[in-house]
Design a protein that fits this description.
It comes from Eutrema salsugineum. Pfam families: F-box-like (PF12937). This is F-box domain-containing protein. By secondary structure, the chain is α/β, with parallel strands linked by helices. Among the domains are: about 40 residues, Up-down Bundle (Monooxygenase); about 120 residues, no CATH class. The chain contains 13 helices and 12 strands. The strands form 3 sheets. Strands 1-4-5-6-7-8-10-12 form an 8-stranded parallel β-sheet, with no helix packed on it. The protein has a two-stranded antiparallel sheet with strand order 2-3. The longest helix is centred in the N-terminal third of the chain and has 18 residues. The radius of gyration is 23 Å and the shape is elongated. The protein starts with a helix and ends in a 25-residue tail after the last helix.
């Protein structure tokens, strides 16, 4: 009987690779990068299977920081950067350039080197979910996007000067079609969007504030836009304009779209009330943990 058992089980390294991959699919990113690949050669081969690395999801990782009184108003806890760097390096080693979706947590604060290092090793990247811009410089973002030739979808916070990001996308990402912005939208932002990304097909501006004239400009100028989401958003009306565009006109213009998502009754919608209370700058950490991942557009929902 002992002899029979020996014939049946000849070693971990001889387990079928497909079976190992199926098992490893249930492992977390931390488990996959914590030494599983070093058990034996067979496990290493299984850990490098493209199926496991189609999506690199870092949405479980948040930067640990302390609030301080001086600028920039926070101080990074030392080991946070080391943890992120370790995970990125191990993931890039195992993924073998097969990652197509890269997701950062909204409160993860990587620096330019981390972003550039990762995108350089993801030449087949189709979707990128970026964190806040606290530690990212214009040059770093442009360098990172320059490696994303196949990028189709981007989720990003708003920024004072979006020109450099949109220019980099226009120059490098010929198949780009989908954008989600998590933050206030003003007319200057929209002017850059309309000018530099006129072929955009899907746009989500949920849970933010947007001027009604900016929204109208999007509907008028972006001729190829098919899907627009402004659910739970606060639509601002400028006090300086003599004649305002009524909401009914916005609805009329939106009829040309395949899908237009907006709240029917913002006064009774809890999420609309949150957006209003936060003045269009959502404090995501104050609400449900996964709120920032949600979207009424299925292709943008995490």
């Amino acid at each position: 009987m002992a002899k029979d058992r020996k014939n049946v089980f000849s070693g971990w390294e001889n387990l079928d690779t497909d079976i190992l991959v199926m098992i490893f699919k249930y492992f977390s990113l931390d488990e996959l990068t914590s030494g599983v690949a070093h058990v034996c050669r067979g496990w290493r081969v299984a850990c490098c299977d493209p199926i496991l690395w189609n999506t690199l999801d870092l949405s479980h990782m948040r930067t640990k920081f302390l609030k301080v009184s001086c600028m920039p108003c926070w101080y990074l806890v030392g080991h946070s950067d080391k943890d992120v760097t370790r995970i990125l390096k191990l993931s890039m080693s195992l993924s073998k350039r097969n990652t197509k979706t890269l997701i950062f947590h909204y409160d993860l604060f990587p620096n330019d080197d981390m972003i550039t290092y990762t995108t350089r090793r993801c030449p087949n990247l189709r979707r990128l979910v970026l964190p806040s811009w606290d530690r990212l410089e214009e040059r770093g973002i442009c360098d990172a996007i320059s490696f994303c030739k196949k990028l189709e979808s981007l989720t990003m916070p708003s920024m004072p000067n979006p020109h450099f990001v949109f220019s980099a996308i226009r120059e490098n990402c010929k198949k780009f079609r989908e954008l989600k912005v998590m933050g206030p939208i003003d007319l200057f932002f929209v002017q850059n969007l309309v000018c530099l990304l006129p072929k955009l097909k899907v746009l989500s501006l949920r849970c933010t504030s947007i001027r009604i004239d900016a929204l109208t400009k999007i509907l008028d100028k972006m001729k190829r836009l098919e899907v627009l989401n402004v659910s739970h958003s606060y639509i601002e009306v400028s006090d300086t304009e003599v004649t305002e565009v009524p909401w009914s006109t916005v609805i009329e213009k939106a009829f040309k779209l395949k899908q237009f998502v907006a709240c029917k009754d913002p006064k009774t919608c809890v999420k609309c009330q949150w957006t209003d209370k936060d003045e269009g700058v959502m404090r995501w950490n104050m609400y449900d943990e996964g709120l920032w991942k949600e979207d009424e557009i299925s292709s943008l929902h995490l």
